[in-house]
Design a protein that fits this description.
Elements lengths: L1 H15 L12 E6 L4 E7 L9 H13 L14 E7 L12 H6 L5 E8 L11 H7 L3 E4 L4 H8 L7
Parallel strand pairs: 3-4, 4-5
Antiparallel strand pairs: 1-2, 1-3
The chain binds the ligand Nc1nc(=O)c(N)c(NC[C@H](O)[C@H](O)[C@H](O)COP(=O)(O)O)[nH]1 and zinc ion.
Length: 163
Amino acid sequence: SSNLHLHYLRQAFDLARKSPPKPTNYRVGALLVDSKSDTILATGYTLECEGNTHAEQSCLIKLAEKHGVPEDQLGQFLPEGTVLYTTVEPCFKRLSGNIPCVERILRLGTSIKTVYVGVKEPGKFVGANTGRKQLEDAGIEVVLVEGLEREILEVATAGHKKA
Ligand SMILES: Nc1nc(=O)c(N)c(NC[C@H](O)[C@H](O)[C@H](O)COP(=O)(O)O)[nH]1
Ligand SMILES: [Zn+2]
């Protein structure tokens, strides 16, 4: 139901506000949820984990650490109904050259079945984000959850100089 999605997206939004503002990225929050048991498997926000990390990436790193495996081996430990909530859609390209989160999601196989997104990525850094099609082509559903767009973008761009 949409208010359940909004409930989790609001939690992701609260996480985004913990991210240190930078002019070169967005402040994003994310959650991995087991939709079958309604359990939060991991939380994450931009720059939470060591290095130049994304919110989604931080969720995966933390959960992989919990299971004692490298991030790219996490697929086997994710329950069937795992879903990802992220305030900004997963990146498909990063100006830093780091592995994009769409690729991090795809290499886990089909364990993540749906990605719930608060807003599409603005074009500022990498132009139009084509990640949604990559996910859908791999059988992963991408759902835009409406209602927090303005707040999400305000927090995401807080480190950018005012236009
Ligand atoms: N979904 C998402 N989660 C994040 O945690 C984050 N920071 C971005 N941001 C997307 C943006 O395109 C990249 O931040 C820039 O392309 C710079 O790349 P780096 O972040 O330095 O690797 N997007
Ligand atoms: Zn990313």
